[in-house]
C-alpha cells in the first residue's frame, strides 16, 4: 500500500509543474492589462503606468517572471495579492474552510439521498418509482444553479421564513475563528443557539450545491446496481435463500460502489465549479467568489495561486478515491 | 467587543428584532468586500464605505446629502490672497480610537495631518511603500500640486501649493485624505507589523472598527468619544457582505438587514409597493455619454455631431436601458452639481432635422462604429442594449452603425487612443463634487489621449475651464462654468445620454438615512425606530 501511495505521489510532480505553468499562462492569455483595469475610467499617466509595471515586475521577460514564481512556489510563497497586498496563501486558507465545509455538506447530502434512491430504483426497475426518480434526477442534473438557488431562497426564506437568506451564521453571533469550520466553531463558542443557526444557514446552500452530484450519484448507483444484480453470484445468493435485503444491501451494493465512488471523486471538480455560483448567491465567504473577483480584477498572483491550490486539492481527492477503491475492493489493491 | 454578549435565539428575523430593541444595531447589506482599511490605497466606493466613511474623518468633509464642503477635523481654514497656501486650524480634543494593541496617548494634532499626506507624497516616508500605491492621490495630481506641508504649531497646519487650484479644498474632503494616527503607525512600525494600519484601522471617525471576517461580516461599535455631539446614533454597525442584488433584497425583506445599496432596476417597482420598505432615491453624480472622435472626418464637423445628437431618441434609452431609473442628460455635469446650467437648450429628437444637417454638411452613406462597454456601470446599466438602440435611431437618418466591444481593460485603453475609430460609450462618476472634476478632467485639452475620449480640444472652452480653476470665489467660478456648458452644447463633442438615479431601499424603521450624491453610504446620523 505504501509503495502504491509513493508511486502515485511521484506522478504528482509533473502534473504539479504542468498546473503551475498553465495557471501562470492562463491569466496572462486573458486580454486586459491589470494596471489599466485598476485605474478604470480615470486612466493614469504614462510615468505612473511605468512605475506600476516595474512594481509588479511586468517589465521582466516572461520566462523570468515564471521562474521567480516557480521558485517562490517551491518555497511555499505564492506571492501577494495585487489588490489587498496580503499573501495569497493566507487569503486562501482564511477562506478555504468555508468552501470545504459547504462542499462536504453538499456531498453528504448528495450521498445520503442519492445512494438509497439509486438502489431502490434499481430494485424496482421499470416501476413507477424508478421512472419518477430517474426523470427527477434528469431535471436535477440540468438545473441552472443560479435560478434554483433564488427559487429556494424565495420559497423557503421569503415565503415560509424557515431558513435564513444567506451568510454562514446569524449576524448577532460573534466569536473568534478556531478551525474556520462554522459548525465546529459555533459549538466551541458555547453560545446558545449558535450551532443551530450555523446548521440553518448550511441547509439551502448544501441543497443547491449538492443537487447536481445528487442526480449523478443516483443515476450512477442505479446503473451500477442493475449491472451487479444481473451477475451470477447474485443469482447464487438468492438461490441460497438469502433475504433480498441481504442480497441487495450487502452483496450487490458493495460491488456496485466502485463506479459510484469514482463519480463522487470526480464530482469534486463539479463542486468547485458550482461553489463559485453558490457562494456568490449565498454570500458564502469561500474561495469560489474570491477567485471570480480576482479574475475580474486581473489579480495575477491570486488567480494563479488559487488555481494551483485548487488543482492540488482535486489531485489529493483523486488519490484518496483510489485508495478507497483498494479498501472496498481488495482485487484492485493487489493489481 | 460588546457584541459577544448580544446573543439571541435562533429564528432569524425574531432574533434580530429582539436584539435590536435592546442595543441598536444597524445592519447594512453591503455589495462587496473592502480591499483593505487604509482608504488612501484604494479607489473603490466599497472600500471607502468600510473605512473612510466609518472609521475616519477628513480635514474638511462633504455635508451628507450634498457636495458642499464643511469643516471636519479642521475647525476652520483660510486661503492666502494668491491662492497658493491654505492654513487649517485643527479641532481640539479629538481622540483617536483604541484597540487591543494600541491606546492613544494624545489627541489629534498637526503631526497626524502631516503624516497622512507625507506617506503618500514622500518616497522617504517609511509608510510610502508599506502596502501598495496611492492611486487617488496620484490621480488627483496632488503630488505635483502640494509643494510642502508645514506645522505652524501643534494645532495649525499649512499647505503650500505650486499653483492656485480651487478644487484643492474639495480634494481634501475625499477619501484618500482621511486623517490617520501617526502614533498608531509608529507603534505598528516598531512592532514590525506596519500592515496593521490597513487591517485594524484606528481613526477619529464615528465608528470604531471591531472585526472583519473576510468576505462575510465587518463589525463596528459606536465611538463613544466622537467629537460631533450626539453622533453616531446607533450603538453597533454591521456590514453583512452580500454580493448578489436579488439576495440583498431578500435579506432586506426578511429583516436580516436594514439598508441595502444597488437594487436591480427590475426590482424597483416591487420595493416601492412593499409596505415594510422605503425606497430612497437621488440623482447620482454621474453622466453617461457617447463621445465622438472629434479629430476624425466627418466628426470634426460640429454639424455632423449635432445631427447625430438630433437623431438619437434618448427618452427611449431611459425607458429601455435604465427602465426609468435615470433622466436624460443635457449637460456634461449632473444637475445636483453647483454651476449646472439649466438654461442650456437640449437637442430635441428630430430625425428630419438630422437628415437635413447631414445633407448640408455633404455627408451621405455615412457608416461609423459605436463602442459598447462590456461591463455594467452606474451611468450605463447595459451598454450593448444602448448601442443597439442608437444603431436603430441612426439607421433612420441613413447612418449605418457597426457595434464593437472589447474586454474592459482593452476597451479603456483603446478608447483613449487619439486615432481611435468610432464613437465611444462611456461615463463618469464624480470624485469630489467640483465641476472641474468633470469639465477639465473629461473635456480639457490636457486630457486628450487620456480621459478626454472625444479628443476634443476647443480653445474657447478650455480657457474658461482653466481660468475657473485658478479662482477661489465660487460664484465667479460658477459663471465661467455656465458659459463653458453653453459652448459644449453648441460644439457637441458628446451625445450626453443620461444621469442615472441612485436607489437606496431601507426598512421602514430606518430613520434619517440620507442618500449621498457622491455615492458613499454614511450611517452616523441614522437611527432605528423601536
From TrEMBL, chain A:
Gene Ontology CC terms: plasma membrane
InterPro entries assigned to the protein according to its UniProt record, in alphabetical order: BPD_transp_1_N, MetI-like, MetI-like_sf
Principal location listed in the UniProt entry: membrane
Bilayer topology term: Multi-pass membrane protein
Keywords: Cell membrane, Membrane, Transmembrane, Transmembrane helix, Transport
Coiled coil: none
Transmembrane feature ranges: 9-30, 100-124, 145-162, 198-218, 256-282, 302-328
Highest taxon of source: Bacteria
Transmembrane keyword on record: yes
Cellular location(s): Cell membrane
Keyword presence, Cell inner membrane: no
Domain ABC transmembrane type-1 as annotated: residue spans: 96-325
A single MF term (Gene Ontology): dipeptide transmembrane transporter activity
UniProt similarity note: Belongs to the binding-protein-dependent transport system permease family.
Name of the protein described by the UniProt record: Peptide ABC transporter permease
Species per Swiss-Prot/TrEMBL record: Roseivivax isoporae LMG 25204
UniProtKB/TrEMBL annotation, chain B:
Signal sequence, start to end: 1-23
SUPFAM superfamilies attached to this UniProt entry: Periplasmic binding protein-like II
Molecular-function GO terms, alphabetical: peptide transmembrane transporter activity
Compartment annotation: Periplasm
Pfam families in the record: SBP_bac_5 (PF00496)
Sequence intervals crossing the membrane: none
Database matches in InterPro entries: Peptide/Ni-bd (IPR030678), SBP_5 (IPR039424), SBP_5_dom (IPR000914)
UniProt GO cellular component terms: ATP-binding cassette (ABC) transporter complex; outer membrane-bounded periplasmic space
Biological process terms in GO annotation: dipeptide transport
Keywords: Signal
Residues annotated as domain Solute-binding protein family: 68-447
Family: Belongs to the bacterial solute-binding protein 5 family.
Protein name: Peptide ABC transporter substrate-binding protein
Amino acid at each position: 500500500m505504501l509503495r502504491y501511495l509513493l508511486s502515485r505521489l511521484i506522478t504528482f510532480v509533473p502534473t504539479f509543474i504542468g498546473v503551475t505553468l498553465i495557471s501562470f499562462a492562463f491569466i496572462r492569455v486573458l486580454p486586459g492589462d491589470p494596471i489599466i483595469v485598476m485605474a478604470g475610467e480615470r486612466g493614469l499617466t504614462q510615468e505612473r503606468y511605468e512605475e506600476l509595471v516595474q512594481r509588479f515586475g511586468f517589465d521582466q521577460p516572461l520566462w523570468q517572471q515564471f521562474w521567480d514564481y516557480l521558485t517562490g512556489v517551491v518555497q511555499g510563497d505564492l506571492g501577494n495579492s495585487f489588490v489587498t497586498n496580503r499573501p495569497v496563501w493566507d487569503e486562501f486558507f482564511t477562506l478555504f474552510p468555508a468552501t470545504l465545509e459547504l462542499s462536504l455538506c453538499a456531498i453528504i447530502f448528495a450521498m445520503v439521498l442519492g445512494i438509497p434512491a439509486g438502489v431502490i430504483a434499481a430494485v424496482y426497475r421499470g416501476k413507477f418509482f424508478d421512472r419518477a426518480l430517474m426523470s427527477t434526477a434528469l431535471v436535477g442534473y440540468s438545473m441552472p444553479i443560479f435560478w434554483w438557488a433564488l427559487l429556494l431562497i424565495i420559497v423557503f426564506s421569503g415565503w415560509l421564513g424557515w431558513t435564513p437568506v444567506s451568510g454562514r451564521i446569524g449576524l448577532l453571533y460573534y466569536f473568534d475563528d478556531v478551525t474556520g469550520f462554522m459548525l465546529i466553531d459555533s459549538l466551541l463558542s458555547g453560545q446558545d443557539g449558535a450551532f443551530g443557526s450555523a446548521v440553518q444557514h448550511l441547509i439551502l446552500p448544501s441543497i443547491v450545491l449538492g443537487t447536481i452530484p445528487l442526480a449523478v450519484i443516483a443515476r450512477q448507483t442505479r446503473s451500477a446496481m442493475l449491472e451487479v444484480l444481473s451477475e451470477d453470484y447474485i443469482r447464487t445468493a438468492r438461490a441460497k435463500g438469502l433475504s433480498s435485503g441481504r442480497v441487495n444491501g450487502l452483496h450487490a451494493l458493495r460491488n456496485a460502489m466502485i463506479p459510484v465512488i469514482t463519480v463522487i471523486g470526480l464530482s469534486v471538480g463539479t463542486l468547485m465549479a458550482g461553489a463559485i455560483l453558490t457562494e456568490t448567491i449565498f454570500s458564502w465567504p469561500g474561495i469560489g467568489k474570491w477567485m471570480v473577483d480576482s479574475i475580474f480584477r486581473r489579480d495575477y498572483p491570486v488567480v494563479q495561486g488559487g488555481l494551483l491550490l485548487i488543482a492540488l486539492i482535486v489531485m489529493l481527492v483523486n488519490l484518496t478515491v483510489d485508495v478507497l477503491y483498494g479498501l472496498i475492493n481488495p482485487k484492485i489493491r493487489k493489481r | 467587543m460588546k457584541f459577544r454578549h448580544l446573543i439571541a435565539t435562533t429564528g432569524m428575523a425574531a432574533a434580530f428584532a429582539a436584539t435590536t430593541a435592546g442595543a441598536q444595531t444597524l445592519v447594512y447589506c453591503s455589495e462587496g468586500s473592502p480591499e483593505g482599511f487604509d482608504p488612501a490605497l484604494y479607489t473603490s466606493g466599497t472600500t471607502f464605505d468600510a473605512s473612510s466613511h466609518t472609521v475616519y474623518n477628513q480635514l474638511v468633509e462633504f455635508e451628507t446629502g450634498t457636495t458642499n464642503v464643511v469643516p471636519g477635523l479642521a475647525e476652520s481654514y483660510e486661503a492666502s490672497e494668491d491662492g497658493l497656501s491654505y492654513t487649517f486650524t485643527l479641532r481640539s480634543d479629538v481622540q483617536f480610537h483604541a484597540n487591543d494593541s494600541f491606546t492613544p496617548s494624545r489627541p489629534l494634532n498637526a503631526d497626524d495631518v502631516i503624516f497622512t499626506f507625507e506617506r503618500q507624497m514622500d518616497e522617504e516616508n517609511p509608510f510610502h511603500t508599506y502596502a501598495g500605491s496611492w492611486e487617488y492621490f496620484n490621480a488627483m495630481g496632488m503630488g505635483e500640486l502640494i509643494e510642502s506641508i508645514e506645522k505652524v504649531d501643534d494645532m495649525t497646519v499649512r499647505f503650500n501649493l505650486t499653483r492656485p487650484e480651487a478644487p484643492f479644498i474639495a480634494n481634501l474632503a475625499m477619501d484618500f485624505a482621511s486623517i490617520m494616527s501617526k502614533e498608531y503607525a509608529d507603534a505598528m512600525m516598531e512592532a514590525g507589523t506596519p500592515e496593521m494600519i490597513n487591517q485594524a484601522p484606528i481613526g477619529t471617525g464615528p465608528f470604531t472598527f471591531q472585526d472583519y471576517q473576510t468576505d462575510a461580516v465587518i463589525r463596528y461599535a459606536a465611538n463613544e468619544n466622537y467629537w460631533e455631539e450626539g453622533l453616531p446614533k446607533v450603538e453597533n454597525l454591521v456590514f453583512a457582505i452580500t454580493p448578489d442584488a436579488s439576495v440583498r433584497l431578500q435579506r432586506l425583506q426578511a429583516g436580516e438587514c436594514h439598508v441595502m445599496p444597488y437594487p436591480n432596476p427590475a426590482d424597483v417597482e416591487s420595493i416601492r409597493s412593499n409596505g415594510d420598505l422605503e425606497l430612497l432615491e437621488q440623482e447620482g453624480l454621474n453622466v453617461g455619454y457617447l463621445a465622438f472622435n472629434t479629430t476624425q472626418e466627418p466628426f470634426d464637423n460640429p454639424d455632423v455631431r449635432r445631427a447625430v445628437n438630433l437623431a438619437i431618441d434618448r427618452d427611449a434609452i431611459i425607458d429601455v436601458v435604465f427602465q426609468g431609473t435615470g433622466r436624460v442628460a443635457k449637460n456634461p455635469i449632473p444637475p445636483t452639481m453647483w454651476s449646472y446650467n439649466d438654461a442650456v437648450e437640449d437637442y430635441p429628437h428630430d430625425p428630419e432635422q438630422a437628415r437635413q444637417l447631414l445633407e448640408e454638411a455633404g455627408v451621405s452613406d455615412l457608416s461609423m462604429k459605436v463602442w459598447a462597454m462590456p461591463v455594467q456601470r452606474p451611468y450605463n446599466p447595459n451598454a450593448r442594449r444602448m448601442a443597439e438602440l442608437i444603431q436603430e435611431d441612426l439607421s433612420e437618418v441613413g447612418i449605418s452603425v457597426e457595434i464593437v466591444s472589447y474586454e474592459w481593460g482593452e476597451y479603456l485603453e483603446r478608447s483613449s487612443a487619439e486615432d481611435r475609430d468610432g464613437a465611444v460609450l462611456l461615463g463618469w462618476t464624480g470624485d469630489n463634487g467640483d465641476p472641474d472634476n468633470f469639465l477639465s478632467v473629461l473635456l480639457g485639452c490636457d486630457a486628450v489621449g487620456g480621459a478626454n475620449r472625444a479628443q476634443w480640444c476647443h480653445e474657447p472652452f478650455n480657457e474658461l475651464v482653466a481660468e475657473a480653476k485658478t479662482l477661489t470665489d465660487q460664484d465667479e467660478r460658477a459663471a465661467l462654468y455656465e458659459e463653458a456648458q453653453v459652448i459644449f452644447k453648441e460644439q457637441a463633442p458628446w451625445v450626453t445620454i443620461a444621469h442615472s438615479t441612485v436607489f437606496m431601499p431601507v426598512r421602514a424603521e430606518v430613520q434619517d438615512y440620507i442618500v449621498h450624491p457622491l455615492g458613499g453610504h454614511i450611517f452616523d446620523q441614522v437611527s432605528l425606530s423601536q
